[in-house]
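In this supplementary section we document a worked example of the pipeline. Step one takes a protein sequence of length 364 as its only input; no multiple sequence alignment statistics are reported here. Step two produces a three-dimensional model, which step three serialises into structure tokens for compact storage. The input and output of this example are shown verbatim.
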Amino acid sequence: MQQLACHASAGPLLIVLLRVLTYSDESVRKEWAEKISQDTTQEAYQLGIAKVEPRYTLGSPADRAVRQILCWQSGETAQEFAGDIVYGMSGEIRGSHLLETIFRLCYDEFHSQLLRCGDFLSATAVQEYIEHDVSNFVIQTILCTIREEQAESMLKVMEKIISSGAVIDPTKKRRGIIWRAVELAARFRVEQDSILKAIRLGFLATSNALTSVLETNDDEGPRKKKKKERKKASHVELKDCVRLFLQIKPSSTDAEQISLDVAGCRTVYHMLRFSPRLCEGVLDGIVGELSTEDLVSIAKDGIGSRCVLDGILDGPVQTPIFKGGARASIQACWKDRFHVLPSCCASHSAKIVHISTDNRREGE
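The serialised model returned by step three reads:
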């Protein structure tokens, strides 16, 4: 079965069969239908929100198929073969896709057992998975599908890895990991303080980030310059992390457009879903550190407007922290509204007009 799971043709077929077996259960389909949101698929696509899928039940045909694929021993707390099979499948392209499908479709108890079997709650093992070009996507799927009971334990593991800078450095192409970790913290509202601290430490650990954050005056003397660098290197503020996440650059194809780091934008969006008291640094990094030109360019960009500006406007805008951020971002865009509004998606344009009108009424 493991050879079939990793086969170029048989592997995708097993994925389809597993979904067919899962969806064929009428009770599962009804429960799944109740959970599906009526939100537009476009918004879910821009935010990278994982699609809600039904979960098979214990003893179902899908459950029996999964146990056969993984050589899962019934009634055994310690699996003799499954751990090695999970490890091997996670590093193979077709096998990893099947393993991700199992994580998405399995019931809660089996999901927890699979985490322990694959050693996915160990920082050392997870670091190894993340460094691999294929198995890092398995970790992303786990972060998307993990249940509330294991969320805190998984985030504690991720905090150690984030602090090292391994998933923050854009050159290592692992930012999907931090995006999913922040999304998990926002979804279950756990470990949010610790995740933000880990993010700051992670940027501090990356030399590229320090080069961008540390600004020194070339006219100052060498001794004063080094002292200033050491002082700033000892602390990276959360507001400094926002620009580093966004990676704002001129577009290579259109002079009037910008390019943004997609995973970084989505990370910022989910950071804005944290408890409002923790969002002040992120809001300051957007409306306080980004120029008006940057905000206008972000508003004219599909992913930027959805993640950054809508990230503010979708928040609790009546709270003191969010109210100031919403007003500042709208004022910046309103100055250039005749260029901004036609470029934005309809929902975003409507929010700008609606909230800006309310703000003007408050001022009258």
